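R.M. (postdoc): so does anyone remember the format we settled on? I'll just put the structure tokens first.
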């Protein structure tokens, strides 16, 4: 089975006030942490990153070697635009059986998190999602049978809305690994608690 990785990083960071993809966490920007989590996962064969808002600044700042950039000109629509374009690009490769989706604003995501979601996939379930105490999160693995349904998503709908209607395998993760950053206060709290 061939598995690709997708980082959703096209958003405008309106609540953060500056490009949160570039916000430092530890020794690297948050987007770099998401890319590294996919690059370190043994089963992930190719990686795409969606960019929209602040694309030029992100390209100038982040090392994107080894990943394919998928431009999202309609990024203002919401997460669905980023997900649609990224999945469409990776789905165009006929050998890709599934895509693992991660977010650029989860700086504690690890290769182990990605690998645990992949390991839970039996090749039959349409999706695998991470969760913490019943709350869904990322990474999310989408099998090829869901790729066409992703094309129908709009607005701020993400994989959660799609996966929620399907039989899924759920992988439990820790609260810190699931934490995402929407505001500078979120980032400060995560730095303090990790």
């Amino acid at each position: 089975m061939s598995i690709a990785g997708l980082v959703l990083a096209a958003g405008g960071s309106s609540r953060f006030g500056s490009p949160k993809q570039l916000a430092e966490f530890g020794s690297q920007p948050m987007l770099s942490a998401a890319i590294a989590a996919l690059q370190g996962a043994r089963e992930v064969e190719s990686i795409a990153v969606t960019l929209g808002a602040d694309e030029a600044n992100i390209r100038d700042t982040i090392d994107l070697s080894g990943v394919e950039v998928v431009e999202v000109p309609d990024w203002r629509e919401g997460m669905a635009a980023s997900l649609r374009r990224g999945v469409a690009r990776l789905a165009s490769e006929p050998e890709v059986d599934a895509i693992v989706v991660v977010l650029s604003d989860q700086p504690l995501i690890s290769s182990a998190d990605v690998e645990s979601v992949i390991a839970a996939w039996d090749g039959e379930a349409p999706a695998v999602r991470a969760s913490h105490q019943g709350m869904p999160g990322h990474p999310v693995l989408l099998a090829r049978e869901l790729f066409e349904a992703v094309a129908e998503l709009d607005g701020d709908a993400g994989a959660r809305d799609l996966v929620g209607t399907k039989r899924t395998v759920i992988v439990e993760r820790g609260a810190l690994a699931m934490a995402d950053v929407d505001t500078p206060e979120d980032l400060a709290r995560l730095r303090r608690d990790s």
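R.M.: ...and that's the designed sequence above, right after the tokens. Also worth knowing: The helical segments are 30-39, 55-61, 79-91, 111-120, 147-150, 159-163, 175-178, 184-193. The radius of gyration is 15 Å.
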